[in-house]
Amino acid sequence: MPNVELNYLLLLPLLGGYTFLSIFYYTKFQHSRIETQRLIFHSIIVGIFLIIVSSYIDTYILKKHFLNLREFLGKFILIDIENLNFFLLTFLVSPLLGLFLNLIIPTNIMMWKVIDKWGDEFEKLYYLSLNEKKFSKRLVMVTLDNNKVYVGYILRLTKPLLTQQLELIPIISGYRKDDTKKVEFTTPYIKVISELIQNEDFDIIDEELLVVLPKDKIVTASRFYPKVYEKFQEESYLIECANVITN
Question: What is the DSSP secondary structure assignment for residue 156, as one 8-state letter?
C-alpha cells in the first residue's frame, strides 16, 4: 500500500481518538480547555488504543462469529484501498465506546472525578454543597466584586470546567460594608420559597428566583451554616459592646 494512502488512513484513528475524548464524560470537559498540541497528542494515544481494540474485535469477534456480516458490510465500501475497512471500524468504535462507558459509569462519579482532578477550589465547593443530602448543608454564601452577597443553594452543575456562570437560588441577600466588610442582609427570600413549595410551584422557584452569577465576578465563596453564623454574630456583638465600654 502506498505511503500516501497509509497516511490518510491513519487520520481515521486520530479522528476517532478526538471523537472519543469529546464524547466520554470523563475526558470531554477537561479536553475542551487544553491547548491544541496536547489535544492532538492525547488523540493519538487514544487512537492507538482504538486500533488495539478494533484489532481484537475484528480478529476474535467479527471473523470468528460474524464473518458473513463482515463481508456483507464490506461490499458497501466502494473504494478499493487495502485495510480501509479496518480503519473505518477503528473510527466507528470510538463513539460507541464513549457512549457505552457513559452508560455503565454513573455520571455523578465521573463529574466528581473531573472536578477533583482538574477543577479549582470554587468548583469543588459548589459540587460538594450541591450533593449534600440535608438542605441546611447545601447553603453557600457568595460575595461578588461589587460587595453584593447571596446566600442560597446551587441549582445545578451541568458542565464542570466549562460553565462560566453559577446558577443560585437565593434564600437571603445583602451586601458587605465597605469599611468593615461585615455582611448586612437586606432581602429575605425564604418565606416566598416556603409558600411556593407548599403550593408545589417548584417551576416558579427556578424561573423567578434563579440568580445567574458570572464566575469571574465571584470574590469569595464558602459554606453557610445558619447556627454558626448566628454564633459569630453574637460574639461580634459582644466584642463591639466591650470596645464601647473600654473606650
Answer: -
